[in-house]
User: What shape does this take?
Amino acid sequence: MVMTEMEVDMNGEDDSKGGMWALEQKIDQPMDEEAGRLKNMYREKKFSAILLLRLAFQSLGVVYGDLGTSPLYVFYNTFPKGIDDTEDVIGALSLIIYSLTLVPLIKYVFIVCRANDNGQGGTFALYSLLCRHAKVNTIPNQHRTDEELTTYSRATIHEKSFAAKTKRWLEGHVFKRNALLLLVLVGTCMAIGDGILTPAISVLSASGGIKIDHPGMSTDVVILVSVIILLGLFSLQHYGPDKVGWLFAPIVLIWFLLIGGIGIFNIWKYDTGVLRAFSPIYIYRYFARRGKNGWTSLGGIMLSITGTEALFADLAHFPLSAIQLAFTVVVFPCLLLAYSGQAAYLMKNKEHVYDAFYRSIPESIYWPMFVIATLAAIVASQATISATFSIIKQANALGCFPRVKVIHTSSKFLGQIYIPDINWILMVLCIIVTAGFKNQSQIGNAYGTAVVIVMLATTFIMILIMLLVWRCHWILVLIFAALSLIIECTYFSAVLFKIDQGGWVPLVIAAVFLFIMYIWHYGTVKRYEFEMHSKISMAWILGLGPSLGLVRVPGVGLVYTELASGVPHIFSHFITNLPAIHSVVVFVCVKYLPVYTVPEDERFLVKRIGPKNFHMFRCVARYGYKDLHKKDDQFEKKLFDNLFMFVRLESMMEGGSDSDEYSVYGQQTRRSKDFLLPDTNNNTFSSVVDLTVSSGDSIVPVKSPYHVNNSGMSSGQVSSHTEVDEMEFLTGCRDAGVVHIMGNTVVRARRDSAFYKKICIDYVYAFLRKICRENSVIFNVPHESLLNVGQVFYV
Assistant: This one.
């Protein structure tokens, strides 16, 4: 490994934009034209009525498991000390009815879910949507060429509109961008906490049904059964939900139909008067009668809408219309009937509030219902765990989480992934929570805290979405913000009273994850800024001549960098410390964009750097946050396929370009042209020809891959012979060996830094870098083909 130390002032700006800067822009221009025509027109899918019904049925198992299992524990957590007055049951039911109507139905299903990123839901999807409409990304690796992607959809903002003013305000200061990122990270960390608490409370509540038939059974037995179920659930994650996913929808549909049917039976049998809870006047009477106790009981009512954020996070699997249909036709009415039935039962049996769900089940179907409840709890837990994996992967792609191993468990569904490290962490924490609290009440308090904070984060981000993306009138935005914040802040104030009764758990979990994510993101940003500030001049490279002042040995050197333009510092350090370099050098930039996916035929951009006899190229591989991980056995093959196609098409274009005029700087320059050709394996790759190349101080046409005169002007007519020569040359170099040259940048705090900064950078970030996956593993680089170039820089 080659090591060097550098100290870079990250706060400085390069103001010397004179003639050399202009030359740099001419020599290594961004790939505007290369990206311009690589757009594959996709049609929005139309769904027939039959297909829509089928998709709505399937969405029950993936999207609504968490929300559907809430009746297991809501009334117990609302009245943890028992029911004093049966009228309180009517008030609690009224609160549940209007909470379900205002939050999941109106806010999420019909408003928030419309703010999806091409079908992708979740906090990071909203953040990606904002990053495309405003320059709020804290890692500025985007370029206007990325906006030409098919999936890079964004609305045009009029300069004098309110949206434009909001955009300028948001971009105005780095503090606002960091505050937005912090808000997103808080919501994400709470969603991860949700992934820990949902399995704990769902499985524990379902397992608690055993005690109804065996009242003398110890609570420890219920805990043991819950832990065994959780161990089995997490141990089977590596198979993925695809293997048993076909069972999820029937289980959840049967669950909803059963709780709805039992609800109707209980209303008819015990008390039809509970239906008066549809009048909101009983909410007022509830608070007037119970006072502070009524206010704190909102923490239990809050549990009736848990799973709403998971609904939004799992949006990617189904079209919005199918999710809306399933909720309005099946989920919403069945939940209302289930809660009303439990309330009717409690009107006559208020002493059974601690296990109201199982007590209200008719004795003849008790055990079948117990089995279905346990299966539904497992399905709900599976949906939340899958959503957590998806969130972690999105955070990883956007540079906000350490690199972890991501396994795709299904060849059919891209979104089904498994992250081993996160899976075992979730399992350990989930078992600790279940065995540590031993009762639903404290876990419920923790659960409510996590959910309401995620909802608040979503609301604040949605306000920006409505202004920047939808460009709604500010009055509509104000109405949405006021109603959402009134409801959610009310719930938040209630859960604050229960911080010491279990509500502290998600705060601690979120704080740990937030600390890790923010430190990792900070280090990632500083590493990128270091590469940007220390990149070397292309004029310096060209001044070395075709041999780069070294011995050019047979082979291909793939130099990995985060820069989409310019030459990284590791390359200059490499060639100044070693006496040889490969005959062909390709600068490879793999970057994630704030889009959910980059189509395969738009993924690669290839161009030549400098004259042909330098044999230097740049390849930019672009990925979305939902795309297959960079560990791809075919990545190197695809890169060379695109490189060969580029050379072939470049020669074809130059063969008929004698009449085109080239000029220097201010004059008209021929535009680059691009082509889209399929390869022999029926995979489409984008290959781009950039006919305008630079040499010395002028932009000149290059007509031969090898003959360049002293002034940098190429001569000769391009022919099939020269094309074959260069193709044979590239093939021979590839056969001679491919070496992957990667930078291993070590970040350290400066000696005069504050104590807390030294702790964060020198110890926490260094530890995270040590335990996370190496780039060579992610890129699937063979150990014998790897060359690390080390650097140390101070921040």
Summary: The first strand starts at residue 5 and ends at 7. The two ends are 22 Å apart (CA to CA). The longest helix spans residues 174-207.
